[in-house]
Amino acid sequence: MIPSERRDFIYRYVYEHQTVSIGDLVELMNVSHMTVRRDIRMLEEEGKVIGISGGVKLNDALRQELPWSEKARLHHRTKREIGQFSSSLVEDGQVVYLDAGTTTFEIAKVLGERFNLTIVTNDFSIMQYLMNKSQLNLYHTGGQVDKRNHSCVGNTAASMLRTLNVDIAFISTSSWDLLHGVSTPHEEKVQIKQTLLDVARRCVLVSDSSKFGKYGMFRVCPLDQLHDIICDNQLPADVVQQIIEKNIKLHLINT
């Protein structure tokens, strides 16, 4: 691998495993310790990872998300289970918003077999999947195209959402915690997610636990502005208790 490919591999691997030893990276890439340390140092300078004794961990201050195709391969079983449960909250005849993301894509796969639903999304992959489901009413937000995440973002997309009354919105995120709430490293995503808080009767955060404890530069909302959070059962017990104390419906999925 050339240096840029090595650094991409390291970041993806750390993104998935949170903490990785230098020895593991040496073995996986078949390169020297010195090469791995040099690559880690460059990733540190970009703010993506933090070097620790004998290894490297993901920076809690998230600077960049993985592209859609990379995220789709991570924690797929957990996302599928979250998708199955999330779909059970949807009632016939409702207007459902599916935020851009690989977890919401799993919700789309289940709702695609339902009838009498209107699906609104800013995600091109979700829309493409549902296009041949003739029994569903479909709306895409349009707007500025985020090629990396297969979606539309920005004011144009948010303006379209302001014309709607949404029954239930499933909101995705790359980072959330108790202190910063829902956040993102990308400013152009904020407006869409904040608009949903105004136009949706029920706002549901869908996220696997690997994204908890991370925060991006741009705040979306505190957790208590959400009605529900759907996550797997790997959240720390004290975090579960604090979320419940905020009067948020917390649904933990066994995985």
UniProtKB/TrEMBL annotation:
Keywords: DNA-binding, Transcription, Transcription regulation
PROSITE patterns noted in UniProt: HTH_DEOR_1, HTH_DEOR_2
Residue ranges of every copy of the HTH deoR-type domain listed in the record: 3-58
Record-linked Pfam families: DeoRC, HTH_DeoR
Residues annotated as signal peptide: none
Native organism: Providencia rustigianii DSM 4541
Protein's name in the database: Transcriptional regulator, DeoR family
InterPro entries assigned: Carb_Metab_HTH_regulators, DeoR-like_C, DeoR_HTH, NagB/RpiA_transferase-like, Tscrpt_reg_HTH_DeoR_CS, WH-like_DNA-bd_sf, WH_DNA-bd_sf
Gene3D superfamilies attached to this UniProt entry: 3.40.50.1360, Winged helix-like DNA-binding domain superfamily/Winged helix DNA-binding domain (1.10.10.10)
Keyword Transcription among record annotations: yes
GO MF term set: DNA binding; DNA-binding transcription factor activity
Record SUPFAM superfamilies: NagB/RpiA/CoA transferase-like, Winged helix' DNA-binding domain
